[in-house]
Amino acid sequence: MRNLLRKKKGTRSVNSRCTPLFAQAGAPVSRLCLLHLFWIVLSNYAVQLPLTLWGIETTWGMFTYPFIYVTSDLTVRLYGSDKARAIVHKATIPGFFFSYLIGVLFEQGTFQGFASLLNPNLFVFRIALASLVAYFVSQNLDIRVFRRYLSRVWWIAPAASGFFGNIVDTFLFYFVAFYKTSDVWMATHWPEIAVADLTLKIAVNLLVFVPVYG
Question: What digits encode the pLDDT tens for the residues 146-167?
Fold first, then answer.
């Protein structure tokens, strides 16, 4: 563990406020998987809820998904890229299953009753599928980029990994989930929402999450 947490040349160690959550608890893979799973399911539900922010059409999901990147990046620092990839792989299928389950039960912010699970819901299924694809691709990219720039100035790795990861994740997710979807509003506005979502997520990542690594 000490070797994994050893400060590398040109980098800073994990922020002391974040380290206790992972390092002091031992950060077992199961807990990190559950943390990933929590943010995946919450984000996939939140993306169903429209939000107008400063005149920009987006969704509540923009506030939750960046936490997945923080979890992945801290895992890379603590345990290395192989362990981080293993966590991503283990969280992908359960994330799809529970995203669909919660999305159907609480579609559009209202409890639909357990009987709703008996009827296939293509709208929610596409969201869950899009999340599975986007999560798997973007998180593996995030891990690769973060690992590549980890030995440089402390802010470069999280900034670069978050930037490229968010681009891939955002457009892949919105295209798979909402291109010609049955929800007319989302089918019409998804490109606008994707651009706004990406812009805000990158801004939040740079202003809020990147400083956490310092």
Answer: 888 888 887 888 888 889 988 9
